Known about the structure:
Elements: E1 7-10, E2 18-27, E3 37-45, E4 50-55, E5 58-64, E6 70-75, E7 84-92, E8 106-115, E9 142-146, E10 156-161, E11 171-179, E12 183-191, E13 200-209, E14 215-223, E15 230-236, E16 239-248, E17 257-266, E18 273-289
Antiparallel strand pairs: 1-2, 2-7, 3-6, 3-8, 4-5, 4-7, 9-12, 10-11, 11-18, 12-17, 13-16, 13-18, 14-15, 14-17
Amino acid sequence: MSETTWIAAPLLPLLPEMMLLSIVTVFTPTTADLPNTALELTYQGTSGAQVDVLLDGIPLGQLQGTGVVKTERICLPEWARGSEFRIKFVLFNRGITCANPDVRDFYLDDLTFVSDTLCLDGAQLVDGGFEGYGSDITSSFWFRKNLNNSTNPNIDVRVLNSPSLARSGNYVLRAQGARGCTDVYANTTMQVPAPASDAGPALRYFYQLPAAASTIFSVCLQTIASFVTDIECQTLSEAADYTEMTLCIDPVLSGRTLNVQVMADGEGNCSTDYIPEPVYVDDMAVVTDDGCPY
């Protein structure tokens, strides 16, 4: 791969952060040409640094810097195959304000498309069970934190390797609140399926929420163009055991790509920490359900 140039650009309106991005134009192979399609790349980043990988502005996944050279693969969902795209590698400023320095490096090399049996053909949501974390597959989820100048490490969102906490397998998504005026969230994309003869499109997932005294937890579907526009949203209540949830989707949206967001929104005093409150989410899948409009 030839050397790419990083350029500075505004992140989003009304936000002080800046981002660096590198853009590469590619033509993705079709499933027929390369089944189980994945984007393979080698990278090295400052420990803790994160780079989002996007296709024409739609997130595919997030690379996590560890300080060492890594080679990983990002599964391509079905909608991303057989078309020309601009791949963007976006390095966000982790500082709360423009005055806070955020020095880090990220190097990318050897981009290619390969076949990997973990990248299922026809997938409308990639790795909803998070088991890709146990391989060289980079999760399709990407993470954000709004810490509001807090340094509390318990305000966090990540995938845990914990068979005892996971509903199935070894890995589970955890979003955790521990202070007011802060929030964390995990995002991925899904493609809305066509309704069946007697069942409408839906997102199905399972969650466990031991306590939610000071944190509001939610799972939302949003438009890609603006991640602040909720199409459908469910607020999660306390659940000692894993609880199945079905989020129905308007069948008019069939064929559209949507953002899926899991969010922990800290409530209460903005300057006071509270006992950490986690939610665990596992086994997300795109389905048709006979309880949903079709």
